[in-house]
């Protein structure tokens, strides 16, 4: 047997079980590593606390004197917990997080060590921005980027093998103030949505309107693979997915893993993982097995979008670190195993405030119903107008493997409303609600109609964008992606639609129309233009793929190469600049960075395919051939003939594989492209199909070559041995 594989299996079989510690009571560990408002209240004077609380809740800037006081309190709290370093953590345009660690310590003129942390250090850090992807915002003479504390996201202590560090969630911008990160656009999109939402609510007669904010609850799917296996798969280590691997005899055809008993080892891991999340103030709520073997899901309770987004990044970091400690490798790739369900991230999203509550909740009075219908209508219009943008913000080389396969939402963006709500919107479109009007006053009676079934069984799992009772669930987001991009797109399209609605409402109301009638009229116009995006049927069906494009005029954008150019469309440029979320230059830089990432990840994979096929799969096939040939000639000496069928098949596949490898190598040498778009199309078609060609031969060899010679851990081993 191949040494690495044998060792991996024996190490797993003989591994000592991790000690189970009694879980600590939640009350004792909850947010114990977070410098939240409660801790600030303890540490600060009444006035200082009042000032910081206002900043946290409204985003108002902090006076320098208060910043000094907060910084000092934060430092004392952290030092008291054994922390020696602090770091501004920020969210560059990659899906990763970045940080630069600084010591609290400085020496004074007597040579004594003292600790210092001032308000200005807290508020502004200066990492060298030159190595972060900035797209066209990168100016050689001005590579510096600045980080600045985002007080609306609490600081926390991160424990790693290198010790404990105070982490300060920050924005990251260029010296000219351009957004170089994923947090600034999210904050801006929230405020654009707030402004537009306030307009609509006040036109509808609301007098007291608190600031609107978006909320996000993200369900995270992931795979756990024993690290002994992962470590002998260069593709898992470098690309996060298997570039080779034949389907196992026992796949997921029995679906017996879903909600199945969670293996003990995984259970111990989960308890550890969740305890850490609790210490960090992340409200982990549900966990369960997913459809595929080795696949699991964690879903924290929803929070304000900005905090949820930071927490989501942190959750992915803690997930990977904890898995490693438990002898697993956590795969966040969207499609680590061909033929096995992929992993996504369902982004549950709603908007609301303290006075009107959740505006995507139908509520129980006609008045609440109307507000709900306006906000819901705004979402429908947004998805219809900016579907390609929503596809672009979830685009990545890895997510392309998942979207459109018959297990994940299609690459066509449509909205699922559920039977009852769809009927209401259709009635609006057909003018039925306007006909029932009596004397200008209308009792819509919608609260009766809008009593939604909240049974998850009722939901359409094939829709990429589904209404689920009091929120929308964007299901096409990739498992490794930041949720920020999707949240920015959703908030911004909503802001745009709410402004459109407000303009229309203003005009209607000016003619003396009553508020509910004006609202229904505007919604009717909205439905006349945008009802094409509503679809309650089977999103996986071939019929929908045809109908969506031919009859409804929706776009099917199967690859990132097709989707990313949406970021350059005139309407999208206008959307972002009109709402103040991204300037044209900032948007263009995102196109450049995401395209670059796409090209790079395919290039890395293609090179790996060439390398692994040549240096480990081909030699295994040749070794087997030489064994067969040796045996055949020894047997010939005994006058026995060994059938040459297997050897011929191995030789045929090995030769064919190397022909494909040569073609892929040659294709990798092409560098001359007229545009980024053309380069992406080339990668999506030529490189990806040649990679698949190599794989097909390699996987055929896996089924032929003697098991003990095969160099790579097989699917069945990785997915089923724990
Ligand atoms: P399911 O798997 O049935 O979709 P889960 O309970 O696993 O449901 O996940 C639902 C997610 O949606 C959770 O993170 C939950 O907190 C979140 N959520 C619930 N209500 C809202 C809301 N109003 N706005 C945003 N997210 C929400
Ligand atoms: Mg869900």
Would you write up a description of this structure?
The chain has 722 residues and is of the alpha+beta class. The protein has 3 domains: 31-181, Roll (Ubiquitin-like (UB roll)), CATH 3.10.20.70; 189-244 and 252-581, Creatine Kinase, Chain A, domain 2 (2-Layer Sandwich), CATH 3.30.590; 598-720, Up-down Bundle (Four Helix Bundle (Hemerythrin (Met), subunit A)), CATH 1.20.120. Strand 11 (284-289) and strand 12 (295-300) form a beta hairpin. Helix 10 (264-279) packs across helix 11 (305-325). The longest helix has 54 residues, at 584-637. It binds adenosine-5'-diphosphate and magnesium ion. The site of magnesium ion (MG) has 3 residues, from loops. This is Glutamine synthetase III. It comes from Zhongshania arctica.
Radius of gyration, in Å, reads 28 Å
Distance between the termini: 20 Å
Number of discrete helical segments:
25
**Hetero ligands:** adenosine-5'-diphosphate, magnesium ion
Uncertain ranges: 437-441
**What is the CATH class name of the largest domain?**
Alpha Beta
CATH topology of the largest domain: Creatine Kinase, Chain A, domain 2
What's the total count of β strands? 18
What is the overall pLDDT average? Answer: 89
Total tally of structural domains: 3
The computed structural class is alpha+beta
CATH architecture of the largest domain: 2-Layer Sandwich
């Amino acid at each position: 047997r191949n040494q690495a594989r044998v060792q991996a299996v024996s190490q797993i079989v003989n591994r000592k079980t991790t000690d189970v510690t009694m879980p600590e009571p939640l009350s004792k560990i909850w947010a114990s590593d977070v410098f939240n408002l409660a801790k600030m209240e303890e540490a600060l004077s009444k006035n200082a606390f009042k000032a910081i609380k206002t900043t946290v809740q409204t985003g108002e800037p902090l006076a320098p004197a208060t910043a000094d006081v907060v910084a000092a309190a934060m430092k004392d709290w952290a030092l008291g917990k054994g922390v020696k370093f602090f770091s501004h953590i920020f969210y560059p345009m990659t899906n990763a997080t970045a940080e630069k660690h600084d010591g609290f310590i400085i020496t004074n003129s007597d040579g004594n060590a003292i600790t210092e942390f001032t308000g200005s250090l807290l508020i502004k850090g200066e990492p060298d921005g030159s190595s972060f992807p900035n797209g066209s915002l990168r100016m050689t003479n001005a590579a510096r980027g600045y980080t600045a504390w985002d007080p609306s996201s609490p600081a926390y202590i991160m424990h790693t093998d290198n010790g404990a560090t105070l982490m300060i969630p920050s924005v990251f911008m260029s010296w000219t103030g351009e957004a170089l990160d994923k947090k600034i656009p999210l904050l801006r999109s929230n405020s654009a949505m707030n402004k537009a939402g306030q307009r609509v609510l006040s036109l509808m007669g609301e007098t007291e309107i608190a600031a609107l904010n978006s909320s996000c609850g993200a369900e995270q799917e992931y795979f756990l693979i024993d690290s002994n296996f992962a470590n002998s798969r260069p593709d898992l280590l470098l690309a996060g997915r298997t570039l080779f691997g034949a389907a196992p005899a026992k796949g997921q055809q029995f679906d017996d893993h879903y909600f199945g008993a969670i293996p003990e080892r995984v259970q111990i891991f989960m308890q550890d993982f969740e305890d850490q999340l609790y210490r960090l103030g992340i409200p982990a709520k549900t966990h369960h097995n997913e459809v595929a073997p080795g696949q699991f899901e964690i879903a924290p309770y929803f929070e304000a979008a900005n905090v949820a987004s930071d927490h989501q990044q942190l959750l992915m970091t803690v997930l990977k670190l904890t898995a490693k400690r438990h002898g697993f490798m956590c795969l966040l790739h969207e499609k680590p195993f061909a033929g096995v369900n992929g992993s996504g991230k369902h982004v549950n999203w709603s908007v609301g405030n303290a006075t009107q509550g959740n505006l995507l909740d139908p509520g129980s009075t006609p008045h609440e119903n109307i507000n709900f219908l306006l906000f819901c209508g705004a979402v429908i219009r947004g998805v219809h107008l900016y579907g390609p943008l929503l596809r672009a913000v979830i685009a990545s080389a890895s997510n392309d493997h998942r979207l459109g396969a018959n297990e994940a939402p299609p690459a066509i963006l449509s909205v699922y409303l559920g039977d009852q709500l769809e009927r209401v919107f259709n009635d609006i479109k057909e003018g039925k609600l306007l006909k029932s009007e009596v004397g200008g006053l209308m009792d819509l009676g919608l609260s009766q109609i809008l009593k939604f079934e909240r049974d998850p069984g009722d939901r359409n799992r094939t829709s990429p964008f589904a209404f689920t009772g009091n929120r929308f669930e964007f299901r096409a987001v990739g498992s490794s992606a930041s949720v920020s991009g999707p949240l920015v797109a959703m908030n911004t399209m909503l802001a745009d639609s709410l402004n459109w609605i407000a303009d229309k409402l203003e005009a209607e109301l000016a003619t003396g129309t009553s508020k509910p009638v004006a609202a229904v009229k505007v919604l009717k116009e909205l439905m006349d233009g945008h009802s094409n995006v509503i679809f309650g049927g089977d999103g996986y069906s071939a019929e929908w793929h045809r109908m969506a494009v031919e009859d409804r005029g929706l776009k099917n954008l199967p690859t990132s190469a097709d989707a990313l150019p949406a970021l350059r469309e005139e309407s999208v440029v206008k959307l972002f600049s009109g709402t103040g979320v991204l300037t044209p230059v900032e948007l263009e830089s995102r196109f450049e960075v995401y395209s670059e990432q796409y090209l790079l990840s395919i290039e890395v994979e293609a090179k790996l395919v060439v390398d692994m096929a040549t240096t480990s799969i081909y030699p295994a096939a040749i070794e087997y051939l030489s064994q067969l040939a040796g045996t055949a000639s020894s047997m010939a000496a005994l006058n026995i003939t060994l059938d040459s069928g297997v050897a011929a098949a191995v030789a045929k596949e090995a030769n064919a594989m190397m022909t494909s490898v040569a073609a892929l190598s040659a294709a990798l040498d092409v560098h001359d492209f007229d545009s980024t778009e053309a380069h992406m199309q080339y990668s999506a078609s030529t490189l990806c199909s040649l990679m698949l060609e190599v794989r097909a031969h390699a996987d055929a060899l896996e089924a032929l070559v003697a098991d003990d010679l095969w160099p790579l851990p097989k699917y069945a081993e990785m997915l089923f041995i724990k």
